[in-house]
C-alpha cells in the first residue's frame, strides 16, 4: 500500500468508526441536527478521498448515503428506522472495504457495492418504510444474479451516441455469459465525480494556497517504546546517582572539593528533574483514550444481537479515559469475549424477558474511569445473573475443581475463567466451547491487571477489569522478607500495621482485628516459598476479601521501571525492577494479591 492510500485508510477508518457511534446515537435522538450534519460531513469526506483513490464502490456507497442524509437534514425525508438501518449497512460496507485495504487487499480486488444495499439506500431516500433488510449474498450468488452483459450493453449505448463502433462490446453481447472475463461497468455519475475531485485537487488555486499546518505526525510505535525505555532507564540512573550523592554527603569535604560537591549536587538535581520530565512527556505520547477502542463495539453488538434475536442497547461512558497504548491494543479481544458472553449468557431471550418486570430492550454498559494509578473498565448487563451453586456443580462435574474449593459466591464466580469451563450444554457460533473467558483473564494478567466478577441472580452481572494506566512504570511499596526485596503495587496497599507476637485464631487461621474487623494474616514469604522468618510488619491489602500480608520490614515507596518475566513463569511474580540502590526487586502480581495470595492448583479434567 502506498503512503497516500495508507494515510487515507487510517483517517477514513476513524471517520467510519465515528459514523457508527453517531448513527446509534441518532436512533435514540432522531431530531438531533448536529448528529445528522456530522454523519453527512463524514460520508462526504470519505467520498472525496475515495474518489481520488479510484475506489468506485466506496464512492457509490458514500454518495448515496450522503444523498440520504442531505434529504434527512433538509426535511425532505423522515428519520425512520429504515433510514438508520440503511446508513448503518452503508457504514459497515465502507468499514469492511477500509479494513480490507488496511489488511493488504489490492484496491482492484475490492468487492462492488451490493445491489441490495443500493436498493435499501434508494428506498430510504424515497422515504419508504417497508424496505426489506439486506440479505448477505455469497460471491457465487452475486455473480449469478448480476447481468452478464451489463458492461457490454452500457458500452454499446454510450458509443451509439458519438458514432464510434464498439466492436468489443458487440462481441461480448453475442458471446455466451461466463465465457469471457467480466468488465466492471463504471457509473458515469461516479466517474464524473472522481474526475471533478482530481481536477479540483490539481487546480492552480489549490497549488498556490499556503500548505496547512500539520498539527500531528504519525510515529512508529516501536520507536516510542524504545524512547520510553530509555527515558525510564535515565530516571532510574538519576535515582541511583541521588542515592550515591546522599551517601557522599555523609563525608566532609574541604578546600576545592566543597564547591565541586555543591556543583555536583545542583547538576544531579537538574538532571533528575529533566529526566523525570522526559519520562512524563514520553509517557504522554503513548496514552490514548479508550474511546478509540470502545467505538468498535456498537456495530459488533448490533449485529450479534440481531443474530441472537435479542433487542439490546450498548451504552458507553468514560470514553475519554486515557491509558497506555499497549493496554488499549490488547483489550480488544478480551472485551469482545466479555460482550459476547453478556449477550449470549447474560441477556435473556425475548420470551424469558417478557416474563419479568424488566424493560423489553436489554442494556449493556461499557464504562471506563481512572482510579488512582489504575484504569477501571466495567462491563455490566441487566440480564439473568449467575447462579453460584450451578457454577460450582458444573466445575466439579467437569473435574476442574474439588468439592472443597470455591465455597463462597465470589470464588464460584471466578470459575468462569477456568479453561474448558462452560455452562452451555451445546456449543453455538457465539459461545459454549469453554474458551474465551480464560483468554480474558490471561490477557488482563499479562499486563499486570486483575479482573473480578459480581453478580446478582435475576438482576445482572458486572465484570470489572483493573489495569495500570501505563505499563512500564508502577508506583510500588518496597518490602523485605527472608532477605528478599519485593515490591507491592500501591493500588492494593491500604495501610501498614504492627503485628503482635501472638494472634487470635478463627478456624485455625491467624487473624488480626483491624478497624473492628477480623482479617486473616498470610505470610508473603512462605506463600512465595521463602524460608520462614520473623515477620512483625503487616500490610492491609485492598482486595474483594481484605486480608493482611506479613513481611519483615517496609523499605519505603518507589516508582519502578518494570521488566516483565518472559522466559519463566513464577506464581505471584509479574516482573523485576532495580531499586534506587541498584538492588534487584521482584514485583508481586496485582491479580495474585487480589486473589488473596493463593497459589491454586487446578485439577485436570
UniProtKB/TrEMBL annotation:
Pfam families: CheW, H-kinase_dim, HATPase_c, Hpt. This is histidine kinase. Its EC number is 2.7.13.3. The modification Phosphohistidine is found at residue 44. InterPro entries: Bact_Chemotaxis_CheA, CheA-like_dim, CheA-like_homodim_sf, CheW-like_dom_sf, CheW-lke_dom, HATPase_C_sf, HATPase_dom, His_kinase_dom. The keyword Kinase applies. It is an enzyme of class 2 (transferase). Signal peptide: none annotated. GO terms for molecular function: protein histidine kinase activity. It comes from the Bacteria. Residues 1-101 form the HPt domain. Residues 261-471 form the Histidine kinase domain. The lineage of its organism: Bacteria, Pseudomonadati, Pseudomonadota, Betaproteobacteria, Burkholderiales. It comes from Undibacterium danionis. It catalyses: ATP + protein L-histidine = ADP + protein N-phospho-L-histidine. Keywords: Kinase, Phosphoprotein, Transferase, Two-component regulatory system. Gene3D superfamilies: Histidine kinase CheA-like, homodimeric domain, Histidine kinase-like ATPase, C-terminal domain, HPT domain.
